[in-house]
Amino acid sequence: MIRCLAVDDEAPALLILADYIGQLPFLTLVGTTTNPIEALTLVQQGQVDLVFLDIQMPKLTGLQFLKLAGNKCKVILTTAYPEYALEGYENDVVDYLLKPISFERFFKAAQKALALRLVPAVSAPVVPPIQVAAPLPAATSAATGHMFVKGESKNKFLRVNYADILYIEGLSNYVSIQLPTQRVVTYQTLKELAETLPQPPFLRVHKSFIVSLDKIRMVDGNTL
Fold it and tell me: Which range marks the domain in which residue 39 is found?
């Protein structure tokens, strides 16, 4: 069960979030508050696993909250301002929900949070692979080469080695590139990136995901 806290300076927004949380069996509502300072206290006391957090709030903005909370909880941002998306993902948020928030979109974000709780730690034992009915496309040895992606400032570019890429997630006009020790978010569409990556080992397995076949340990139904 994921313990959730909803933080927003508008009471109607809190009512919607509380209703959505109550409809999902793997979420439980710890509370709602219009006071981000109170919310930060609960997080620092270890009472919260996941915060649904508004960005534009008096006293303490959502982005300031993220920096103060550190890694003590996961955060899903809720806001009416899409221009904060990149900065949110650079702070390693689970997802970014634009108001008005539909239940379908909320459910997708909650599933992401659940998946993060279920993913084993890096030091966990390796799960032995299982046999699958249909073989995956043959992958070459770890991809060689690299690419450069735009950083957070205008003239900054980051080098990303193909061999380090675990998977790539499309985020509207951005992509999130998951590496072994960090996540890189850059302004580019998943379609554009898919056209430049070597295939194999990279394969687009979903409208929102590209994976490296070299990094797959197990296939279980529709789950990689």
Answer: 2-118
